[in-house]
Amino acid sequence: MIKAYAAAAPGAQLTPFEYDAGPLGEHDVEIDVDYCGICHSDLSMLNNEWGFTRYPFVPGHEVAGRIAAVGKNVSKFKLGDRVGLGWHSGYCMQCHTCMTGDHNLCDQAQGTIVGRHGGFADKVRAQAASVVKLPDNLASEVAGPLFCGGVTVFNPMVQYDLKPTAKVAVIGIGGLGHMAVQFLRAWGCEVTAFTSNEAKKTEALQLGAHHTLDSRDSKALADAAGRFDLILSTVNVSLNWQAYINTLAVKGRLHFLGAVLEPVSVNIFALMGKQRSISASPVGSPAVIATMLEFAARHQLAPKVEVFDIKDVNKAIEHLEHGSPRYRVVLKMR
């Protein structure tokens, strides 16, 4: 039996829960969970904000642990390997998207916490193809958030062949944004952090930003016209997007990583005249995750985490939802 923490209804407290996962699939692995991050997507699923949560619901899709068992057709892992698991726990492995390396865009991709039980547990199962080995010099305590938040900000850097000479701005210096600043600085980019919070300005510079720009200062935004090759938006609220588009350089891109639920209204001529673009992306493929982990380990980059014991899971969730974590919340499972 797998021992987990589950919610029985939308917004309910998590309580101890056990379930029988059945026989291990021939292409699957079982992971002993050591740490699991708490992401805002876990909160959205917990509260059924997206309308497809199934209860009892076990959150957790930022897993760091060790291989405990392998299916008979799995050869890429051995028992005891340190590994991680993110938003996806499986793919069809047959479609053109999978076969060309974009597993994360597969129509049949299986969410780790969508219709199945996640990583707030002593064990979790997943298709071996979705699991990635951790570099030896990357601590398990900080690895979990890289599998969701980390790869979310790293993925567009790879997808759009970001040049190390690019001038890049980040909107929102939080769970995603603080990792984006670190990655971009190590990539070689000139990094600007958009923030109106004085404390966040200082922290952004400490994380590696070269500049900060007050997002509430209309003159500062106007003075930045045509400056940025790429803007990564990590927030999930509506802003004056036109003002940000005006700060893009020729062929610049405004890229959404935060899930803004309201429609985005823009002036097409502001895009057309300078051949600017708007785009968005989800998490990355296993190959991109592996590249990101190698990059993070090489440059000694890691999310800043606050660690809670699993027995305090509800306190940790409340801290994420109503507190001010710096910057990711991680559960210690053992």
Low-pLDDT runs of 5+ residues are none
The major pleated sheet works out as:
7 strands, mixed
Secondary-structure element pattern, one letter each: EEEHEEEHEEEHHEHEHEHEHEHEHEHE
**Class based on secondary structure composition and strand pairing:** alpha/beta
The span between the termini is 16 Å
Q: Total helix count?
A: 11
Top-tier CATH class of the largest domain = Alpha Beta
Instruction: Characterize the overall form.
Output: globular
Rg from Cα: 20 Å
Q: Considering the protein shown, what is the CATH homologous superfamily of the largest domain?
A: Medium-chain alcohol dehydrogenases, catalytic domain
Q: DSSP strand (E) fraction?
A: 25-35%
Instruction: Give the number of domains.
Output: 2
Mean pLDDT across the residues is: 95
Please summarize what this structure is.
This protein has about 325 residues and is of the alpha/beta class.
Structure write-up:
The chain is of the alpha/beta class and 334 residues long. It has two domains: 2-148 and 284-332, Quinone Oxidoreductase, Chain A, domain 1 (Alpha-Beta Complex), CATH 3.90.180; 151-280, Rossmann fold (3-Layer(aba) Sandwich). It contains eleven helices and 17 strands. The chain has helices at residues 40-46, 96-99, 140-143, 149-159, 177-187, 198-207, 218-223, 241-245, 268-272, 286-298, 313-322, and strands at 2-6, 15-19, 28-38, 63-70, 82-85, 88-90, 110-111, 123-127, 131-133, 167-171, 190-194, 211-213, 228-233, 248-256, 277-280, 305-309, 328-332. Strands 3, 4, 5, 8, 9, 16 and 17 form a seven-stranded mixed β-sheet that branches. α9 links the parallel β14 and β15. α4 (149-159) crosses α5 (177-187). The radius of gyration is 20 Å and the shape is globular.
